[in-house]
Structures are given as structure tokens and as C-alpha cells.
Design goal:
With about 325 residues, the chain is mostly beta strands. It has a single domain, classed as Porin (Beta Barrel), CATH 2.40.160. Helices cover about 0% and strands about 65% of the residues. It has one helix and 18 strands. The strands form two sheets. Strands 1-2-3-4-5-6-7-8-9-12-13-14-15-16-17-18 form a 16-stranded antiparallel beta barrel. A two-stranded antiparallel sheet has the order 10-11. The longest helix has 4 residues. It is globular and about 60 Å long. The N and C termini lie close together (about 10 Å).
């Protein structure tokens, strides 16, 4: 469970300034092995978040092989991007929200922050004493609807989306992750207007992330991700491209066990056929401290400044957010 106090100031077409006490989220996790079998299960229930309650993940897994050479297969509802190998590719970080380049929603209403239904298979190899580890996995999922939400029933879409994740770890201190996504979705342009039309764009994401822990205290993380989607401004116009190049940098400094400082910067350059080039950026600083030896009660303070520029209209919005939150896990 996480509650917070926030002070938020936005500028743009609809400027606003407000402060509030919030219940950010309440989550319930369950999982375990099925006795006498190679199967296990995991489920995550969103009891409350953004005024909603829903199933976030529900997975059945088969695992085989040995500790240094194993394979697995999964089926169910799962996160598209898990960043299994390196901390830089994770959606969950020391900050309250994921990196901008991972959560950015393109003009085609697509983001990697999703949990579609599908199948997943992977293999992991480790050298003696686990000094080097290589892992690879691939997923086939139903993808997303026109509004960007996950497709639960395959009856609403015939095509499948593909995801690949490869990781290389060198000891416990660092590693590299390569990720690639290819899929399609329905896109509704100019929704509600007299010139509304639909098309079926191809969606591509390719990225590389890495991190290294210096002196057992300073964790340096970075990443790059490129997007390339089909794009149309008018029903009788030719198909163009939406492209973006996103850079992410972060440093986390662990003063002592349970006490950390963090800072990060993201920049996203975007270009859309017919409208030109724009960019978005964001930076943040923060600190968090565990209030118990077990680490199950954590207080965190953070400040984030984000500049968003719509890649189609070029309208600019800035958001300044101070957040103080308390997480309780049991």
C-alpha cells in the first residue's frame, strides 16, 4: 500500500496548481510452486490505483533444466517489458514513476507500459560461480486496442505482437539489456470529427540499456530506445512515419543499507511526417529511507520537472511535481 502528499503545478493550455493527500495504490500479490510438479503460479491484483481495481498479472509457468542452464514457458497476462536482466530496463525504480522514455505514449496511442495476454518462453545460461549470465526470452501477445489498452480477448484482433528481450550480466555489478517490439494496432484519427478515419499502423520499438555498480554504492544506469510507427494525417494522404529517439540517464547512491539518493534525466526527440520535429524532457531528484530493518516501510521524497511537447500540434506543457510518499509492505 502506498499513500502520498503531492504538490503539482502544470502550465500549457489548461494551467493548474494543486496539492493533495492521495492513496496511490493498494496491491495484492500471490504466488508459489505447485507441489510435485515443475509448475508455479504468480498473480498481481490491483486493489486500487487511479480509481480502478483490476487484475494486473496472472501467470502459469513451467520451469526445467539446472541452476546454470534452465528454460521456462509462461502463459497468461504479463507485463510486456519486465527488464529481467538489468536495473536500467526496469519499469520499477527508486523513483515513484518509470523513466519518461519507457512510458511515453506515441501519437498512435502506444506505450510499453502494458500487460497483455500471451505466451512467453526463455532460456538462461550461467558460467561457473555465476560470473557471467546470458538470458533470452520471446513473447507473443494479443497487443493493444485502438485506445492503447490491453486486448484481453483475441476475438477483437487477428494479428499478434512480438517481443524479444536479451540480457547479459557480468557478475552482480552490471549488465546489458537489448529489447525489441514489433506489432500492429487499430488507430482512430480525428475521433469524433467529420474527418474521422481509421488505419492499421505498424509499431516498432528497439532499445539497449545498461548499468554498473561502482564501489558497491554508486549505481550508474543508462539507456536508449528508438520508436518507429506508421502515421497518417489524412485519410487520402500517404502513410508517413512517427519516429523518436529517447535517452535515459540515472545515478543512485546508496549511503547505507536502506538509505539512497537518486537523480535522473530523460530526453526524447520526436519527428512526425507533416508536422516536423519536437522534443520532450524530464529530470528528477529524490531520496528514500527504510524505517525498519526489514525494509518493509519506506518513506520517499522526490521532485520531478517534465517538459512535454505534443509531436503533432507542437503544444508545450510543463509539469512540476513534488511528492512525499510512504510505502507499507507486509
Amino acid at each position: 500500500m502506498q499513500g502520498s502528499f503531492t504538490q503539482d503545478k502544470t502550465t500549457g493550455d489548461q494551467p493548474a496548481s494543486n496539492s493533495s493527500f492521495n492513496l496511490d495504490q493498494a496491491l495484492l500479490f500471490t504466488g508459489g510452486s505447485i507441489p510435485q510438479t515443475p509448475f508455479s503460479y504468480f498473480a498481481e491484483f490491483k486493489l486500487y490505483e487511479d480509481g480502478e481495481s483490476a487484475i494486473e498479472q496472472t501467470i502459469l509457468t513451467y520451469t526445467g533444466g539446472r541452476a546454470n542452464s534452465s528454460y521456462f514457458g509462461k502463459v497468461g497476462m504479463m507485463h510486456a517489458q519486465e527488464g529481467d536482466g538489468t536495473r536500467a530496463a526496469l519499469f520499477f525504480s527508486l523513483f515513484p514513476d518509470p523513466a519518461l522514455i519507457l512510458t511515453n505514449s506515441s501519437p498512435t496511442n502506444f506505450t510499453l507500459d502494458q500487460h497483455p495476454v500471451g505466451i512467453d518462453a526463455g532460456y538462461t545460461w550461467a558460467s561457473p560461480y555465476f560470473k557471467q549470465i546470458v538470458g533470452i526470452q520471446a513473447k507473443v501477445t494479443n497487443g493493444v486496442n485502438a485506445d492503447g489498452s490491453e486486448i484481453i480477448s483475441a476475438s477483437t484482433k487477428n494479428g499478434k505482437d512480438f517481443w524479444m528481450n536479451a540480457d547479459y550480466l557480468f557478475g552482480p555489478d552490471g549488465g546489458l539489456t537489448f529489447l525489441s517490439y514489433y506489432g500492429h494496432k487499430n488507430q482512430i484519427q480525428n475521433q469524433g470529427g467529420p474527418d474521422e478515419f481509421t488505419f492499421y499502423p505498424t509499431i516498432r520499438r528497439n532499445g539497449i540499456f545498461g548499468n554498473y555498480l561502482f564501489f558497491d554504492r554508486l549505481d550508474v544506469l543508462g539507456g536508449y530506445i528508438r520508436a518507429q510507427d506508421d502515421w497518417k494525417l489524412a485519410v487520402d494522404g500517404s502513410t508517413g512515419r512517427y519516429t523518436s529517439n529517447g535517452l535515459h540517464g540515472e545515478v543512485d547512491y546508496y549511503i547505507q543499507r536502506g538509505f539512497a539518493l537518486m537523480a535522473r534525466y530523460d530526453r526524447l526527440g520526436q519527428s512526425t511526417t507533416g508536422t516536423g520535429s519536437t522534443h520532450a524532457s524530464g529530470w528528477g531528484v529524490g531520496a528514500q529511507k527504510a524505517l525498519t530493518d526489514l525494509g518493509n516501510i519506506i518513506i520517499r521524497g522526490s521532485y520531478n520537472h517534465e517538459r512535454d511537447q505534443d509531436p503533432v500540434s507542437a503544444a508545450v506543457t510543463t509539469d512540476k511535481l513534488f511528492k512525499l510518499d510512504l510505502r507499507i509492505m507486509w
